[in-house]
């Protein structure tokens, strides 16, 4: 058993007869009244995100998990296939277990969280950022760069990301996976 002081991003807890992963939290100590922890929880079974507030000091049931490195192989519809980098076993996961499947290209190494009680995969953690090639974008208009103007660009995985006007087709860009936003253009 853990308490609200043990809450951190990525912690898996059992709540309302389901297993949730904490994706955001904030300890709040108001001027009046008791302290509490405001959390955003993502169900690892169906992918739904809920907001919940725990009173400070409340006991929460944490789930013991292990993390393993897996390589993304391919997908067939909503089923994604991964290979364990240590023993080369393969597993398949539904699309709902992935945070941003549209930013994942074949060969990408991800961290999969596995429940130690039943060896079932719970969720997939992407790297903090990925580098993808722009395959389609409209050319930027000269003289239209006085403000932080952006344009949509399609990357090699099919995802659409807003990028600055100077990005062209064929450029490799770094994308933050948590928000799905452009970070920088990569040098060749």
Automatic annotation (TrEMBL):
GO terms for biological process: peptide biosynthetic process. This is Elongation factor P. It is found in: Cytoplasm. CDD domains: S1_EF-P_repeat_2. PROSITE patterns: EFP (PS01275). Involved in peptide bond synthesis. Stimulates efficient translation and peptide-bond synthesis on native or reconstituted 70S ribosomes in vitro. Probably functions indirectly by altering the affinity of the ribosome for aminoacyl-tRNA, thus increasing their reactivity as acceptors for peptidyl transferase. HAMAP family: EF_P. It comes from Polaribacter gangjinensis. GO terms for cellular component: cytosol. Its main location: cytoplasm. Pathway: Protein biosynthesis; polypeptide chain elongation. Residues 130-185 form the Elongation factor P C-terminal domain. Keywords: Cytoplasm, Elongation factor, Protein biosynthesis.
């Amino acid at each position: 058993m853990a308490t609200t002081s043990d809450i951190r991003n990525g912690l898996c807890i059992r709540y309302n007869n389901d297993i949730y992963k904490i994706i955001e939290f904030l300890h709040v100590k108001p001027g009046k009244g008791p302290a509490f922890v405001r959390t955003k929880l993502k169900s690892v079974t169906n992918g739904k995100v809920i907001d919940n507030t725990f009173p400070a000091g409340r006991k929460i049931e944490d789930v013991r998990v292990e993390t393993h490195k897996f390589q993304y192989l391919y997908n067939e519809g909503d089923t994604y296939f991964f290979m364990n980098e240590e023993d080369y076993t393969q597993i398949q996961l539904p699309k709902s277990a992935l945070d941003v499947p549209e930013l994942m290209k074949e060969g990408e190494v991800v961290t999969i969280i596995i429940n130690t009680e039943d060896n079932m995969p719970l969720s997939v953690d992407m790297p903090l950022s990925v580098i993808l090639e722009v395959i389609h974008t409209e050319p930027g208009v000269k003289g239209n760069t006085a403000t932080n103007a952006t344009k949509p660009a399609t990357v090699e995985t099919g995802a659409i990301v807003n990028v600055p006007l100077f990005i062209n087709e064929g450029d490799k860009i770094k994308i933050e996976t948590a928000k799905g936003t452009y970070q920088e253009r990569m040098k060749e």
